[in-house]
Amino acid sequence: MVLCIVAAVVFGVMSIFSAKYRPWAREGFRCAFNMLTFRKCDVHLEERMRAHITSHLMTRSERLASAVYHNFKLFSWAFTIVFFASTIYTGISVYNIAVHGTCDPVNGQCIFVPPDGTNATVEQSKTCVQADAPAAAPAYFDTKAKVMFFYRDGCIWCEKEKQVLELLAKDGYMVKPMHLGVHPEFWDQYGIQVTPTFIGPDGKKVIGYLEYMPLRSLLDSYK
User: Fold this and answer.
1) How far is it, in rounded angstroms, from Cα 75 to Cα 81?
2) Who's near 11: CB < 8 A, 6+ residues apart?
3) Are residues 76 and 156 in the same domain?
4) Is 115 a member of any domain?
5) Domain count, the chain
6) Is pLDDT of 122 > 50?
7) Taking 90 as the threshold, does the pLDDT of residue 212 lie above it?
8) Among candidate residues 179, 161, 177, the one with its CA nearest the CA of residue 216
9) Rounded CA gap, 223 and 216, in Å?
10) Handedness of CA 160, 147, 179, 171 (dihedral sign)
11) Is the same domain home to 9 and 90?
């Protein structure tokens, strides 16, 4: 009964591409329906799956096949938990990519968002990086500023932070640009793990995206 829903989903998808899985899918849906309606499963799907899996394992290792056969209930529970956990995690990642543009909105790092900026928009691809700042340096960059701002291309949270810096620049707040793409040695030199990161003149390190007031307070502390 534990694998009924998982079997219905997995074999249901596989049956789209191969007819040999359709009987398994039908039994999976029937067993899942019986379980959800609090009726006894009459298709013995779990027993058939145990026999099918252990028969394949017998050709490789009798000891492994015996362990799986006698502990199949435990393995089925573990597989079911992993299946639903991975499904939930995948759903969260897809939501974050759709809403935030990255599957990891906390650190802004995601395997689907290349760190080299290859996912940059057309407008971004028209800018050229020179030294520590773009050719047309924004108002919030000053190489003499006390607080260092570590950022990289392709980091969605760096771009969001720049929007906050644009607002702060209107009140005269500036940061020292530390472009990790131009200066990759900064990663080790300053112990940078993620972007964005701010480091003050006293060595205080603040990691991650900051809203307007927290960032303003940080910059005020070094005036």
Assistant:
1) 10
2) 21, 22, 24, 25, 28
3) no
4) no
5) 2
6) no
7) yes
8) 161
9) 11
10) positive
11) yes
Residue 189 CB-density burial (10 A; 0-12 exposed, 13-18 middle, 19+ buried): exposed
Question: Residue 116: its pLDDT value, please?
Answer: 46
- Average pLDDT over every residue of 211-220: 94
Residue 116 in domain:
no
Look at residue 206 and tell me whether its pLDDT is greater than 50. yes
For 107, residues 6+ apart whose C-beta sits below 8 A from its C-beta are 157, 194, 208
- List, in sequence order, every residue forming a beta bridge with 198; answer none if it has no partner: 149, 206
Rounded to 5 degrees, φ, ψ at 197 are -140, 140
Q: Are residues 147 and 84 in the same domain?
A: no
Q: Is 202 within a domain? A: yes
Higher pLDDT, 49 or 197: 197
**Structural domain containing residue 147:** 122-220
Span 20-34, mean pLDDT? 72
Which amino acid appears at position 138 of this protein? P
Q: Best-predicted range by mean pLDDT among 8-22, 79-93, 122-136, 179-193?
A: 179-193
